[in-house]
Amino acid sequence: MINKKQLLEYYRSHPDSSARLLGLFPEMMKAVGRLILFLSEMPLRRSIPLVLWSEFWLERTQYAENHTRYKRGRIVYADLGAFNIGSETSYRHPCLILCEGRNWAFVAPMTSKKYGDPVTLHFDLPLHYPFDTPSTLQLDAVKVIDKRRVLGYFFSKSQHDGFLTPEEMERLEPIVVDKKDLDAVDELIARYFAPGLYRDLQKYRLELEQLALENETLHREIARLREAESLS
Question: Above 90 in pLDDT, residue 173?
């Protein structure tokens, strides 16, 4: 077994040093050896994606920060990682941009496998969007990702699987989620992740509706009085 305490102590005290310089490489190789044994025995449907994602991670961490502006409501294709536990969303998924910053994006992953599931935080997208299959937004899996995980705008799985050249994909328009659907997504997220804010929002909506009714009543009364004045 690896000495986790020792590794954590060195990690905290010498975060910018290398394992080779500190003599920790043999200790770290114990964990790597366990991982190799694990990969050799697990089904290929798990081991191959883990190996490929490790290569992706090694490649992407060498990239400069991605400062591309991805507008809210656009669908991007992102690699969410392979080291998931249980039902966590992993691997490559189309994702809805909810908001973004200089080098990060807050996204909601999409999937076609759970379309129609009776899960409150799964938002089934209407069928007029040009996806290969009916898709749902997994609002129970929203997360902040580094933009280096974003592979580009998402158009369709068939196009990303290599049926179009990069030049042809550059000419495609990104898929944009309608404002009506975005508002419904925002409300669902607020309801379950910010219940206090959601209650305030509902209260203000009722107040606005009441004010609108009162305003309409006043306009009708003013019109009636003006009509009565003109007849007198």
Answer: no
Residue carrying the six token digits 């189309």: 94
Render pLDDT for 63-114 as a digit per residue (tens, 0 to 9).
888 899 999 999 999 999 877 777 888 888 999 999 999 999 999 999 988 8
Is 98 in contact with 72 (CB distance < 8 Å)?
Answer: yes
Burial class (CB in 10 A: 0-12, 13-18, 19+), 121: middle
* pTM assigned to the model: 0.73
pLDDT digits (tens, 9 = 90+) for 106-131: 999 999 888 888 888 999 999 999 88
Listed in sequence order, the DSSP H helices in the chain are: 4-13, 19-22, 25-41, 44-60, 157-158, 166-170, 179-193, 195-231
∠ CA(165), CA(167), CA(172), 5° rounding? 95
Q: Which helix (H) or strand (E) holds 136?
A: strand 136-138
